[in-house]
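Let's practice the habit of predicting before peeking. Look at the sequence and jot down your guess about where helices and strands might fall. Then scroll down.
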Amino acid sequence: MALEKKFVKEAIRNRDVEEFLANQFARAGYSHCEIQRTPLSIRITVFAHKPGLIIGRGGKNIDAMIQTLKEKFGFENPQLDVQEVKFPDLDPFIISKWIVSAIERGINYKRVANLALERVMGAGAIGVAIRISGKLGGQMSRIEKFSAGYLKYSGEPAETDVKTAYAQANVKLGTIGIQVRILTEPPKELELLKKIEKVPEMTEEKTKEEVKETKEETVEEKGEEVGNDKEKTD
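Done guessing? Here is the structure:
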């Protein structure tokens, strides 16, 4: 039981760290963080679109943040690493935070979701799905789903290839939950399906070329026959 309490306590602290870093680095296009325990330290990796705003000149912001993490969360010897998110429109964490910000500013959730779909698919995603749940303009809670492209919902590809993020928007009527799922790389079965679909097209094109070649050969043969007949007549 003591071990379970320890895991629960660590999970709560990790959630608090996530919320704290999200508020601190919102201007830097904060995505998410990963916390790993090592024998000598605790490594916290922050993913953001603009890492320069987090690091600061000469790493000054990093030193200050490490000290804050020690005092606020009781981490012993924390190590802070910052990784750049090169394609923010393909990051479900950044997209979910953008949706939260737009909904909290009063923009219609349908418009926000459709704009998010356009952003993600325009960035080159294979598929995207957005689920928004809560009191969406009325006293009754409901779930609205938006999707585009190809996406796996079950099986191993859904767990390994699909990136998922959750966020919450606080509005007057209550809390609205947002889930964003993005597939950036085509699964093997999709590539295989495309190859299978191309086979009939290639066969059809090949058949057309063969028919065309046969017609040309027939015309040439007729031309030779006409020439021979003409020579005989002469």
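How did you do? The beta strands are 30-37, 42-48, 78-84, 127-134, 142-149, 162-171, 174-183.
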